[in-house]
Amino acid sequence: MRERRAATIPVVNREVTLPLIVDDRGNLQVAAADVSKLLRMVGGRWLHLVEAGEEGLDEDTVATLTIELAKLADRIDVACIAHSSGGAP
User: Fold this and answer.
1) How far is CA 53 from CA 19, 26, 41, 63, in A?
2) From CA 20, how far away is CA 10, in angstroms rounded?
3) Are 12 and 54 in contact (CB under 8 A)?
4) Is the CB of residue 6 less than 8 Å from the CB of residue 18?
5) pTM of this prediction?
6) Closest C-alpha among 9, 85, 80 to residue 42
7) 39 falls in which pLDDT band (50, 70, 90)?
8) Residue 13 predicted with pLDDT over 60
9) Domain map of the chain by residue range?
10) 43-47 CB contacts, 8 Å cutoff, 24+ apart
11) What whole-number distance in Å separates Cα of residue 6 and Cα of residue 26?
């Protein structure tokens, strides 16, 4: 039997809730679309904080990290598209 839960992840002054499913073997399952959306949201939030003048955030570092999060989200999306279309992962 699958057990459905939710995880709350703090994201710089905000919280994001992801639906979590534990399968019959006890493995945690999270929808890839939710993960890629979370990665993009975290990067976007960081950029928003920099633009708002939040102290202690280096603009170049935030930009670099945001780009890397977006690249990771893109790879997740591409892998999902390939999987769903019967292509190689």
Assistant:
1) 33, 44, 18, 14
2) 16
3) no
4) yes
5) 0.67
6) 9
7) very high
8) no
9) 3-84
10) 43/67, 43/69, 43/70, 45/11, 45/12, 45/14, 46/12
11) 15
Specify burial of residue 63 (Cβ count, 10 A radius: 0-12, 13-18, 19+). Answer: middle
- Compute, in degrees rounded to 10, the torsion defined by CA atoms 13, 72, 19, 23: -140
Question: Residue 5 — pLDDT band, cuts 50, 70, 90?
Answer: low
- Identify the residue whose tokens are 């990290």: 65
Give me the mean pLDDT over the 44-49 stretch: 92
pLDDT band at 42 (very low <50, low <70, confident <90, very high): very high
